[in-house]
Structure formats: C-alpha cells, structure tokens
Amino acid sequence: MTLVRGMLQRSEPTFEAASAVSVGKRAYQEDAVLFDCPVGGETGLVVLSDGMGGHAAGDVASSIVLTEVFSELKLQSTRQEEDETGVRTLLMRAAHGANDCIRAYVDEQPDALGMGATLVAGVLRGPFLHWISIGDSPLLLFRGGELIRLNEEHSFGQQMDSMVEAGLMTREVADHHPDRNCLTSVVGGGGIAQIDCPDIPFELFDEDILIFASDGLQFLPDSRIAEVLGDWQKTPSTSIATQLLREIERLNDPDQDNVSIVVVKVAMARAPMARSPEPRPQRAPVTPVRPEPLRANLDVKSADPGGRSVLVLRGAP
Length: 317
What we know:
Layout: E1 10-22, E2 31-36, E3 43-52, H1 58-76, H2 84-108, E4 116-117, E5 119-125, E6 128-134, E7 139-143, E8 146-149, H3 156-165, H4 171-175, E9 202-203, E10 209-213, H5 222-232, H6 237-251, E11 259-270
Antiparallel strand pairs: 1-11, 2-3, 3-4, 3-5, 5-6, 6-9, 7-8, 7-10, 10-11
C-alpha cells in the first residue's frame, strides 16, 4: 500500500456480523441461515434461504439450499482468483447446484413436489460485496441515514408496482390483488426464471450496514427499519439484530411470518496521515563569503407466509 502525502488511504475492511431468528406466528420454522465473517479472514460469507411449500417440505427446501450453497462457497471461495468474474461464476454455480439437489430430492420424494426456497447470498471480499438473489428475500444497505434495497423482489407484487407507476393499474387494485404475493422465481428444482447476480460487485464504505433477511422482516415498514438502524448504528451488530427482532415482536401481528436476519457492519481501517519530517535548522556561516539560500530537503514515502402461493415462471429445465 502506498501512502500519499496529505491523503488517507483505504485499507482492508473488517466485518462484524450477527444473526437473529424468530418463528413468528407460524407453527414451524422454514427459514435457514448461516454466516461466516471471521476477523482477519480474507472472505466473509452470508447465505439465507426462506422455504415455501408448507406440507410440501418448505423447511427441507431451505435446508437443502442453505447447505449446498454455503458448502460450495466455503469450499471454493478462497480458491477463486480475486476478480469479479470468478466470484460471480462461483455464486451462479452454487445456486444451480442447490437447484439440482432439490430436483433430485423431489424425484425420490414425490410428495415434496411444489417445494422451493428463496436465496440471498453474499461473498464479502476486500471492500466489495458480491451477491446473488432469487425470490423475495431482501438485501438491504444502510448508508448515510438512508435505507436502500440492493436486490429486486421476484414477485407479481413488484410487477404490479411497476404497472402502477406506468399508469396501467391503480394502486388500490395492486395492493389488494390476490396474486400479489406469488413469487415469479424460486429455487425449486425446475428452471430458475430469474437470477440477480451483478457482473460488477458492490463497493462498500466505512460504517455501511448490510441486512440479509427473509421477507418476514418486511412486516416492519422501511421507514421504521431505517429508524432502528440510525438509532443503533454505533452499537454492535448483535444489538442491532436484537432490536430489529424486538420491533417485529412489538407488532404482535397474527400473520407474522418467520423472520431471519443477518446484520453485517463494515469498518474500513485507514492508514495514518503521512507526516513530513521537520527540516533541520541550518546555521548561517559566521563569515559567509558567498551567502546561499537555506534549503530543506523533504522526502515523504496507504417462510413462507401462511397461504402464500408460489407461481414460478419456469424457464428451460
């Protein structure tokens, strides 16, 4: 790292992560989550999956997706070249591998036909986030007091909102449409209709907060999530995750879905400011013959909601 005079250079970040989970008002837990962000490690990993299918084994689907994706990322991420193409290829391969595993499970267990799961996963490497998303599990960024969703929601609700903005549907019809919560893309053993996996990784900055979550978190409005993150951003990630879960519990919504949250705080180390050495004082000669100007040489060297249906737009198997 080169230290330039008068400038602070960005260094490798550290990631502090914590998770929180709740079954909500459901009879069983269909979310599954794992993360690994060791201090001093070169790579951080987060994988979250929200199963669906109810009696058609939504919890099994999320467990399959979690296990397959996390193990693939953990095994291969440190072996990849440190470029965008290598990590993106790894994420895509992990998602398709999980999809193949679900297909194999359904072939052996026909009663599980119709099960599936969402996927949101991230590889944190240096000051960059590489991510992949299938379904409606949100990936959120809190930066400078603003909450931003990084991934798209693969549902008819998202499509209906776009139609409202285009003047093709009224807001009232969109909000109350019976198919609003139908997903248009899941990891379910068939063709995956839509995958978000950017070619260029997302650049992270000091004090960024990332939230990987199941859609149960969205029973809280974005404005309230932003308020909690703003009030608690100086506290450890464990406190932030706990507080978000408390806010969900305070709602006491009888339809509350499973909730899973992973909070990742980004701390960017900085190199110290370069300091110029003080010039040594020079004495003027007692009897100068040819006075010359003095010189100083400076040398400076940086879960499926109850009753939620899943409508998958299938591509080629």
